[in-house]
Amino acid sequence: MLTKTASPTTITLWNGREIPRLGMGCWAIGGPFYAGDTPLGWGEVDDNESVEAIDRAIGLGIRFFDTASNYGAGHSEEVLGRAIGNRDDIVVATKFGFATDPETKQAIGAFADEAFIRRSVETSLRRLKRDRLDLLQFHINDFPLEQSDAVFDTLEALRAEGKIDAFGWSTDYPDRAARHAGRAGFVSVQHTMNVFDPVPEMIAVIEGKGLISINRGPLAMGLLTGKFTADKPVGAKDVRGAALPWMVYFKDGRMAPEFAAMLDAVRDLLTSGGRTLTQGALAWLLARSPRTFPIPGFRTVAQVEENAGALEKGPLSAEIMAAIDAALGHA
Predict the structure, then answer these.
(1) Which residues form the NADP-dependent oxidoreductase domain (predicted)?
(2) DSSP letters spanning 70-116
(3) Is the pTM value of this prediction over 0.90?
């Protein structure tokens, strides 16, 4: 479980290790993959650039990298394996639940039976070049609550066998977050959270159960970087251009107008103290709860350096947080 420490920019993990309170999300470095013609990745990538960016993150003190078995149809795990391998000073988290074909780069389906979970673990261990998975997360967000018991029974068994050190659920549903919080080895919930979406119900569960809040979408899929304008579309192979029901920040490949207006309302507040917009968005998460742990995505060294710079500047002040709440109408 997470233990609050004296520093607002470090976190103590379930294994007693204290690390900087910022990880790196590795969806984008997996490259393209698809469901039919629908893109699920973030466009083309340069693996050498990805490895260089990972090396730079490690050099800046980052010790947590989050990926999934389906990102890039397994390619994200392979790139991480190449860059990190079995280093014991780095925490690598991955996920299971969505099957992909590495040859065709196509999504195959969602699975959660024991045989699939065990195959997925072995594949992830091989790709990542790890002896054990530090954190394994169930990737199916809305999986039926009652049926999830068998899934986490399997994860408990894998932990007892030494295949994984800890496990969690990547879900946006507080009831799912709470369901398995009492199990030994259940340490985290990965969920959407950012300035636009403070998810108070989820934070209440996480704080009440002593879990780690791993924040995906901390930059609202790039909208909170300030790099997009109303007339700037994403690339053809970019998931942000897909008509997916959960794609709220972008519509038809462009930033959604309602979120653009929200960004304008808080831009000056987030860039206080010499922060970039990206750093302000991450600083908001650091201030939101002592249990939050943002994992912004990256593809370049420059993005890694900007993300990591949020730690140096620390959390936003209580006054700025209150002003942001007022500007966005958060309770």
Answers:
(1) 22-327
(2) TGGGGHHHHHHHHHTTT-TTSEEEEEESEEEETTTTEEEEE--SHHH
(3) yes
pLDDT digits (tens), the chain, 331 positions: 333 444 799 999 999 999 999 999 999 999 999 999 999 999 999 999 999 999 999 999 999 999 999 999 999 999 999 999 999 999 999 999 999 999 999 999 999 999 999 999 999 999 999 999 999 999 999 999 999 999 999 999 999 999 999 999 999 999 999 999 999 999 999 999 999 999 999 999 999 999 999 999 999 999 999 988 777 788 878 888 887 888 898 888 888 889 999 999 999 999 999 999 999 999 999 999 999 999 999 999 999 999 999 999 999 999 999 999 999 999 7
Give which of 204, 196, 203, 202 is closest to 281, Cα–Cα. 196
Amino acid letter at 193? Answer: M
Query: In the chain, how long is the greatest CA-to-CA distance?
Result: 53
The domains of the chain are located at 17-226+290-313
Alpha-helical regions (H) of 84-226: 114-128, 148-160, 174-179, 200-209
Q: Which two tokens stand for residue 153?
A: 């029974």
d(CA 197, CA 101): 33
The domain 17-226+290-313 is classified under which CATH number: 3.40.50.1000, 3.10.129.10, 3.40.50.1100, 3.20.20.100? 3.20.20.100
Residue written as token pair 């207006």? 261
Tally the residues of the chain: 331
Burial of 146 (0-12, 13-18, 19+ CB in 10 A): exposed
Q: How far is CA 172 from CA 118, 134, 177, 201, in A?
A: 24, 22, 8, 10
